[in-house]
Amino acid sequence: MPGGLSTDLYELNMAASYLRRGMEGLATFSLYVRDMPKQRGFLVSAGLEDCLRFLESFVFEEEELAYLQEIGFDDRAIEDFRTVRFEGDVWAIPEGRIVHAKEPIVEVTAPIAQAQLVEAVLLNQVTLHTTLTSKAARYIIAAEGRALVDFAFRRAHGVEAARAAARGSAIVGFEATSNVEAGRELGLRVTGTMAHSFITAFDGEREAFRAFAEDHPNRTTFLVDTYDTIGGVKNAIDVIREMHPPGEVGVRLDSGDLDRLSRESRRILDRAGLEAARIFASGGLDEHEVAELVRAGAPVDAFGIGTQLGVSADAPYVDAVYKLVEFDGRPVLKLSPAKATAPGRKQVWRGPSEDVIGLRDEAAPGPNHEPLLESVMRAGRRLAPAPTVEEMHARFARDLAALPVKAARLTHPEHVVAHRTDALAALTTETAEAARRRIRSSD
Q1: Which of 252, 256, 239, 262 is CA-nearest to residue 196?
Q2: pLDDT per position as a tens digit, 75-118
Q3: Which residues 6+ apart lie within 8 Å of 211 measured at CB?
Q4: N or C: which end of the chain has fewer CB within 10 A?
Q5: Rounded to an integer, what is the distance from CA 60 to the centroid of its chain?
Q6: What are 194-210's pLDDT values in tens digits?
Q7: What is the torsion angle, in degrees rounded to the nearest 10, for the CA atoms of residue 266, residue 270, residue 273 and residue 277?
Q8: What is the CATH number of domain 25-52+87-131+315-442?
Q9: Higher pLDDT, 440 or 115
Q10: What three-state secondary structure class fits 134?
């Protein structure tokens, strides 16, 4: 897990000043997405478990403290950092739930230095996981029940991002991943076929297929587009008839006109009596291309999704922020134009027709409104075991089924706007007026 130096320098600068001045008051920071990407009608909350693991283990190691001394922190700051642990509370929206702009995903309450020092990692993890999981969710909508497999590892921005793509895609309902380590760690089904290099390493395509079927009889999906796609399908049929592999068989199309090629492949396979053989399509597909193939009725049984998922190509980040909303019992806010914040510890309620943001200690706005934020950590220790992938997927499936149709559209989605309660609106007005009075009095 990341250590004490996994932060930005300005966090350390601020924390050193807080600690030196004995500023130990509790601070609440709210982490949320300020504005939705235009291409997204919803987001999927993800990354919380990695955040909680980081918070539980937060500490400055001796070699880290030595480095801080090298870059200019004095002995007092070093001694203060040496004793820092995360001892705060966390409220969060569980992973797998659909969220919208301005809705707090995580709220941290801790002595201000502690809460400040963990900002960078929390933003990093929530941003990464939420971005990739939300992209994966769009493929679920596009595929309309067709199987999806995560192929993102090789093009993701680092090994950690590849793991996040595998995890996020499983949360929303992908059936497998090609990422073996992610499969081992997370208990996911792993799957894979072969690369074009395997085909070209043999003297002929049929020889390569024969070797693969002999060595991997229970996972014989043949990559057929190395030379000539339809010829490759025919060679695959010949090898299947010759060797009768006992497991599931199929062909993978990785280039060309996938609609036409899938139809031709299906006809050839069916004529050969291989009606059960699956057709697998891949090759840099985005969700719009998947949706187009599905709408056209292309006989593709499963899609391999790689680059476009692994980097969330059309929306590679979400505008996540981490803002102080209460300090030492006093609500605080930021008044910057277009970046103003709302004070106080929050709750988000999901009702039959709208989401509502209010203060944590106020009553629900209606009898059918469900609170989304839950207490997940107290005094630096998590309150429950990590959820299973199945539990997170069930949350997502329920929320997706209830999502407004216009928000679920892949093109020109309508954003869901969460409304504020009267109590939150009043506190915002009062806190803003108090801040302006302080500014005037200090001039």
Answers
A1: 252
A2: 999 999 999 999 999 999 999 999 999 999 999 999 999 999 99
A3: 202
A4: C
A5: 28
A6: 999 999 999 999 999 99
A7: 30
A8: 3.20.140.10
A9: 115
A10: helix
Q: How far is CA 381 from CA 82, 85, 110, 231, in A?
A: 20, 11, 12, 60
- Mean pLDDT throughout 49-68? 97
Mean pLDDT throughout 307-328?
Answer: 97
Q: How far apart are CA 3 and CA 68, in angstroms?
A: 13
Given CA atoms 352, 355, 360, 365 in this order, what sign does their dihedral have? negative
221, 249 contact by CB (below 8 A): yes
pLDDT of amino acid 295 = 98
Rounded Cα distance, 232 and 217, in Å: 18
What's the length of the chain? 443
| Closest by CA position to 257, among listed 288, 221, 209, 289 | 289
**Residue 413: φ, ψ to 5°:** -70, 155
431 closest CA partner among 322, 338, 340: 340
pLDDT score, position 211? 97
CATH 3.90.190.20 fits 143-310, yes or no: no
Hey, which residues does 150 pair with through a beta bridge? 177, 305
Nearest by Cα to 12 from 49, 88, 64: 64
- Percent helix, strand, coil in the chain, to 5, is 40, 20, 40
Is residue 61 predicted with pLDDT exceeding 90?
yes
3-state secondary structure of 378: strand
Instruction: Give me the amino acid identity at 105.
Output: I
User: Does residue 433 contact residue 368 with C-beta atoms inside 8 Å?
Assistant: no
Q: How many CA atoms lie within 13 A of 438 on its CB side?
A: 9
Q: How far is the CA of 199 from the CAs of 178, 203, 213, 232, 247, in angstroms?
A: 19, 8, 13, 11, 21
Q: What percent of the chain has a predicted confidence (pLDDT) above 70?
A: 100
pLDDT in tens, 1-14: 678 999 999 999 99
Could you tell me which of 303, 55, 263 has the C-alpha nearest to residue 175?
Answer: 303
% of the chain at pLDDT higher than 90: 95
**176-177/147-150 β-pairing:** parallel
**Do residues 318 and 298 make contact, with C-beta atoms less than 8 angstroms apart?**
no
CA–CA separation, 239 and 211 (whole Å): 10
Handedness of CA 228, 230, 235, 240 (dihedral sign): positive
234 with 208: CB under 8 angstroms? no
Phi, psi (deg, nearest 5) at residue 429 = -65, -45
**Bridge partners (DSSP) listed for residue 159:** none
Check residue 443 and give its pLDDT: 64
Task: Domain ranges for the chain, please list them.
Answer: 25-52+87-131+315-442, 143-310
